[in-house]
Amino acid sequence: MSLRIKKGDTVKIIAGSDKGQSGKVIVVDPETQLIKVEGLNMISRHKKARSAQEQSSIVKLEGNIHISNVMLVCPSCGKATRISVAEIDGKNHRKCLKCGFDIDSKKPDSKKSDKKVRGEKTEKTAKTEKTSRVKRTRKSDAGNADN
User: Fold this and answer.
1) Strand locations in 6-69, DSSP E?
2) Could you give the 3-state DSSP secondary structure of residue 19?
3) pLDDT tens-digit series, residues 36-84
4) Where are the alpha helices (DSSP H) in the chain?
5) What gap in Å lies between CA 75 and CA 105, rounded to an integer?
6) CA distances from residue 44 to 7, 53, 62 in whole angstroms, order as listed
7) Which of 6, 59, 90, 129 has the smallest number of CB atoms closer than 10 Å to its CB?
8) What b/e sequence results for 46-82 when a residue is b if at least 16 CB atoms lie within 10 Å of its CB, and e otherwise?
9) Are the C-beta atoms of residues 81 and 97 closer than 8 Å to each other?
10) Are 5 and 25 a contacting pair, CB within 8 Å?
11) Is the pLDDT of residue 117 over 60?
12) 143 three-class SS
């Protein structure tokens, strides 16, 4: 079974103790559907000295994470997204469902320079916020208003 996440992809953890963190995929095992993410899900292994010159130590290693507990981060829009697979020129290419970017292509568009600073609002977003505010009522209230 082929997986939609490959070695070198950036993923975001969506479940578990490292929820919300993101990192680069180091290892992908399609048979067990497990991956290892750089710097996340760290486990401790006690290493015993095998000779007089060696020293015993505790080694920190990346642990396995099931593929269902991660989402791919789109290199173009920078958001965690689901993936669609489309056939282009006889080869399967992964596409971001949020922005439509072809993930398997060489380089993403430089949309990072267009991103606004967090908390800053543009004129367009300020207008949509004013128009999108709708007074919400309960269904029971809406039914009584008709009578």
Assistant:
1) 10-13, 22-29, 34-37, 42-47, 57-62, 64-66
2) coil
3) 999 998 999 999 999 999 999 999 999 999 999 999 999 888 889 898 8
4) 123-132, 139-146
5) 10
6) 23, 22, 9
7) 90
8) eeeeeeeeeeeeeeeebeebebebbbbbbbbbbebbe
9) yes
10) yes
11) no
12) helix
- Dihedral sign computed on CA atoms, order 116, 118, 121, 127: positive
* Alpha-carbon gap, residue 97 to 94, rounded angstroms: 9
Residue 71 in tokens: 């989402």
Lowest mean pLDDT among 51-55, 98-102, 108-112: 108-112
Residue 116 binned pLDDT confidence (cut-offs 50, 70, 90): very low
**pLDDT above 60: residue 128:** no
pTM of the model: 0.64
Identify which of 92, 116, 112, 115 has the alpha carbon closest to the alpha carbon of residue 104.
92
